[in-house]
Design a protein that fits this description.
Length: 587
């Protein structure tokens, strides 16, 4: 058994499906002599297709973002045409009788071992370029797999270094019932994807890909962060019983989808969903959400084969608005950087990437690129017959009032351009995602310049605690139930209510039962969460009154340590809704 970071509650028992950095058929076997030449031909075809991709990418990025940003794809094409690189792959196919995909994996491992030994930062950054090229090549090879290959049967436990958006696309319709990753934390890609699908997940288990092979039986306990490999019959039986109990609880809670979200004393609350795509919108509707409180637009960019232009973005945003409950959507502009990068906007190593060139800072440095997204959002918000839209535009990681003013200036430019071009556009509210402590301190000033506030508790917590939430050595400090976090949130919510400005919390705290009780007691009435948690919170609020929640907050704010607050809130949750206490660990 290994202990990791629990990021999505539940228990799953299934077959391991290991996802290496470069996709390789896990059931692959050495090639027959007659298969070597066709495999070399597949590799050559993939090389040509990848080269064509990179040339097209250069042209598209040069026109949409800028020539200097597009140069990265010329560098990638140079890697692709490198004689040594090609010969290494061919040699593995011919002498080792490996598939081209497996050969690429071996070559990637070779380059990784070489580049990671150097202390030259420039050369270390080139490893990312090599990895990007190999991933693109691997994608073309995967598309060329012979028909008739039988996928591994589910239920499956996806095991990876980190579960990326591109992996989710590649996994397609496989029956993934659990996720385990070597890296990442509470708000990593794996955590976000798992929670949006309502499947158990554990992250931060170093070396798991060396311990587990595809086909092994694996148990994932997303409540306590335990992962068990090849369990004995008694352990398997015990966890299958737990798995059924979680499944039954989810089924019971889902029955409240059509009920209003109302507290025991009649206080109405707004339960919204955090989504990445149209499929998540449909899940949100099925779970009873009243709208979308956070549309992460970066996933469109992260899963796109190149760079989405204005028309592609328009289609994506319009489809999400149409599919969302009540056609109500808060669209967050591009939040790239930190652990989410695209090559055409740079992925140079930074000493502190979460404190570096990311999010709105990156958008403001590429105003034309930013303008394209704003135009697409405004056009998507345009009225349509029979569709009453409620669209809000939100900007992430705003730190200073100067940034907000620059953003509003670019929004006005987008509006003026569309008016001049006689292209339909809609009215949108302007809000900021409050996740930087500097903005929390100056909240009263910001409230005079926005229509609403959405608290991004994931980043706010890590910035307040000065601890990387995805670093297993310090992630324990990123504790939402800490005195500092609760005091700051209480001040922000009070300021918003006093100013009459709507406030929502869209971080993972919103869907955590213990944290929800505190936020409700602070006066928050709008919450946005992973769709799977909407029924949980709807059930929880029906068991508590606003008065009791206020008393809980008053007591919690008197504690001086996170452990005291955690213990107290666990007791409160067991009293109020004992069935739901199984969804959260004590830590």
């Amino acid at each position: 058994m290994r202990k990791g970071i629990p990021v999505s509650p539940g228990v799953a028992v299934g077959t391991a499906y290991c996802i290496p950095d470069i996709f390789v058929d896990p059931r692959g076997k050495p090639l027959d002599e007659t298969e070597v030449l066709p495999e070399l031909n597949r590799f050559e075809a993939a090389l040509e297709a990848t080269a064509a991709d990179l040339r097209a990418l250069y042209q598209k990025v040069a026109s949409q973002v800028g020539p200097s940003e597009a140069e990265i794809f010329r560098a990638h094409e140079a890697i692709l045409h490198d004689h040594s690189f090609r010969e290494k792959v061919r040699d593995y196919v011919v002498t080792e009788k490996q598939s081209a995909s497996a050969a690429l994996r071996h070559v990637m491992d070779e380059y990784t071992a070489i580049f990671e030994k150097t202390e030259d930062e420039y050369l270390r950054e080139r490893l990312d370029d090599v990895r990007d090229v190999i991933r693109r090549l691997s994608g073309h090879l995967s598309a060329m797999l012979q028909p008739g290959q039988t996928p591994i049967q589910g239920p499956l436990i996806a095991i990876a270094e980190e579960l990326l958006p591109s992996h989710v696309v590649a996994l397609g319709d496989l029956q993934i019932s659990g996720v385990v990753t070597q890296t990442g934390g509470q708000t990593s890609h794996a955590a976000i994807i798992a929670r949006s699908r309502g499947i158990p997940a554990v992250t931060g288990i170093r070396g798991i890909l060396r311990q587990v092979a595809t086909g092994d039986m694996v148990i994932v306990d997303g409540r306590d962060g335990h992962v068990i490999f090849n369990p004995d019959p008694e352990t398997e039986k015990a966890y299958r019983k737990l798995e059924r109990e979680f499944f039954d609880l989810k089924g019971h809670l889902a029955e409240n989808r059509d009920h209003p979200a109302v507290s025991a004393d009649g206080e109405h609350i707004d339960l919204l969903a955090n989504i990445n795509n149209v499929a998540d919108c449909k899940t949100a509707a099925a779970m009873g959400a009243s709208g979308v409180g956070l549309f992460r637009t970066e996933y469109l960019f992260l899963t796109h084969p190149d760079v989405p232009d204005e028309e592609e973005q328009l289609t994506a945003y319009r489809d999400v608005i149409r599919a969302s409950p009540n056609h109500r959507v808060t669209i967050r502009t591009l939040d790239i950087g930190g652990d989410k990068t695209v090559p055409y906007l740079g992925h140079a190593r930074e000493a502190n990437p979460f404190l570096g060139w990311r999010s709105i800072r990156l958008s403001l440095e590429h105003p034309e690129f930013f303008l394209t997204q704003l135009r697409a959002v405004l056009r998507a918000a345009a009225p349509e017959p029979g569709v009453k839209k409620n669209v809000r535009l939100m900007f992430p990681m705003i730190t200073t009032l100067e940034e907000l003013r620059r953003v509003r200036m670019i929004v006005r430019r987008a509006q003026n351009e569309l008016t001049a071009e006689r292209k339909p556009q809609g009215e949108v509210s302007i809000g900021l995602m409050l996740e930087v402590p500097a903005a929390a301190i100056m909240i009263e000033t910001f409230l005079k310049n926005v229509d609403y506030v959405s608290v991004g508790s994931n980043d706010l917590v890590q910035y307040l605690m000065a601890a990387d939430r995805d670093n297993p050595k310090v992630s324990h400090l990123c504790q939402p139930l800490s005195p500092a976090v609760l005091h700051v949130l209480n001040q922000v919510i009070s300021a918003c209510r006093a100013a009459g400005k709507p406030v929502t919390l869209c971080g993972e705290m919103a869907g955590a039962p213990r944290a929800f009780l505190l936020l409700f007691g602070m006066g928050l009435r709008s919450f946005s969460m992973s769709p799977a948690f909407v029924p949980v919170i709807k059930d929880l609020v029906s068991h508590v009154t606003a008065r009791r929640a206020e008393q809980i907050v008053q007591t919690a704010l008197e504690f001086t340590t996170s452990r005291q607050i955690q213990h107290y809130m666990s007791e409160q949750l067991r009293e109020i809704a004992p069935d739901l206490s199984m969804l959260e660990s004590e830590t």
